[in-house]
């Protein structure tokens, strides 16, 4: 869709003057469309161009003049979601028509399911450039709109009006934040993604009012952190790395325990419980030795900062397959 202005209907490439492309791109970039939240988002910056974190001096004002010490660039989460929804405007209207719904009556009751992904991008260092010295690793946080449903009242089942056909394609995956960070640098990752988490939390308690198909409609959002690999889940949950004695991100099984008992595995960890364990780790209220303390908190080694859904992780999946 991004360059539909360039492709003629015949499919031949017709080169448009650059400014028409630029104006088309502006519509696709966050910050272009008007929208409103009801109630207004709590603890969220009102300027949409919170795009740059400067490694030395906090926020700067503009997205375009990037200081050399920048370590992260991002869009505000709600502004990026608005941009993504506007990009899907035709699909939403088509979905309503295909379901035989009168679009003038469908103004509220929309729910949007968003898949979040975050992963390290490996080595991005300049091999022989003379640019600013930046960390050699980068991390990318992105999201995909998985589905949009509409429900008219509480009793009825929701009707799906949009389902992403290729949820793992780079075309449906929208970048939100790029950072020069090593994914195992827990503190820097927390510092940069902390505001993203705050914005997401605020959006869960509010409704977005956005014009789609010429009418204002209201949307609620649900977020699923299913795009993280195990390393990132451990990082976000404040757990020891994958070489830990505690192999699982969702229960307290150790390597020895898992090899002895292939059946009795259940999900026992919650985000709030991990926070309590972190406080025990930090304060050591029972004055235990390092080994005793570690055994008590079962692999929690840092403060978790992102609530993840308790879904099945890789280890439980393997154990389930072995049991089968």
From TrEMBL:
Domain V(D)J recombination-activating protein 1 ZnC2: 246-308
Top-level lineage group: Eukaryota
Domain V(D)J recombination-activating protein 1 pre-RNase H: 36-108
V(D)J recombination-activating protein 1 DNA-binding domain ranges (all copies): 1-35
GO molecular function: double-stranded DNA endonuclease activity; histone binding; protein homodimerization activity; sequence-specific DNA binding; ubiquitin protein ligase activity; zinc ion binding
Occurrences of domain V(D)J recombination-activating protein 1 RNase H (ranges): 112-244
Biological process per Gene Ontology, one example term: V(D)J recombination
InterPro entries, sorted: RAG1, RAG1_DNA-bd, RAG1_pre-RNase_H, RAG1_RNase_H, RAG1_ZnC2
GO terms under cellular component: DNA recombinase complex; endodeoxyribonuclease complex; nucleus
Protein name per its UniProtKB record: Recombination activating protein 1
Lineage of the species this protein comes from: Eukaryota, Metazoa, Chordata, Craniata, Vertebrata
Gene name in the database record: RAG1
């Amino acid at each position: 869709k991004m360059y539909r202005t360039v492709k003629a209907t015949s499919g031949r490439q017709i080169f448009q003057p650059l400014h028409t492309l630029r104006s088309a791109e502006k519509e696709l970039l966050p910050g272009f469309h008007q929208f409103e939240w009801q109630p207004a988002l709590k603890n969220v910056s009102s300027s949409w161009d919170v795009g740059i974190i400067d490694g030395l001096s906090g926020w700067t004002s503009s997205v375009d003049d990037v200081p050399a010490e920048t370590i992260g660039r991002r869009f505000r989460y709600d502004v990026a979601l608005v941009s993504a929804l506007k990009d899907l405007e035709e699909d939403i209207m088509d979905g309503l028509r295909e379901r035989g719904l009168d679009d003038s009556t469908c103004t509220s009751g929309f729910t949007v399911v968003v898949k979040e992904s975050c992963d390290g991008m490996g080595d991005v260092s300049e091999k022989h450039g003379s640019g600013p010295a930046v960390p050699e690793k980068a991390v990318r946080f992105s999201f995909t709109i998985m589905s949009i449903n509409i429900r008219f009242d509480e009793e009825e089942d929701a009707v799906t009006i949009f389902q992403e056909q290729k949820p793992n394609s780079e075309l449906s995956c929208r970048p939100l934040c790029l950072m020069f960070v090593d994914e195992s640098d827990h503190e820097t990752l927390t510092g940069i993604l902390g505001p993203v988490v705050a914005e997401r939390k605020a959006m869960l308690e509010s409704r977005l009012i956005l014009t789609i198909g010429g009418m204002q409609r209201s949307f609620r959002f649900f977020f699923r952190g299913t795009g993280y690999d195990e390393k990132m889940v451990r990082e976000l949950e404040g757990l020891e790395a994958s070489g830990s004695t505690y192999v699982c991100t969702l229960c307290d099984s150790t390597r020895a325990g898992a090899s002895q008992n292939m059946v009795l595995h259940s999900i026992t960890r919650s985000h709030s419980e991990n926070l309590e364990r972190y406080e025990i780790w930090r304060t050591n209220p029972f004055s235990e030795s390092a080994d005793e303390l570690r055994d008590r908190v079962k692999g929690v080694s840092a403060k978790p900062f992102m609530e993840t859904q308790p879904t099945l992780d890789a280890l439980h999946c393997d154990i389930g397959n072995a049991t089968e």
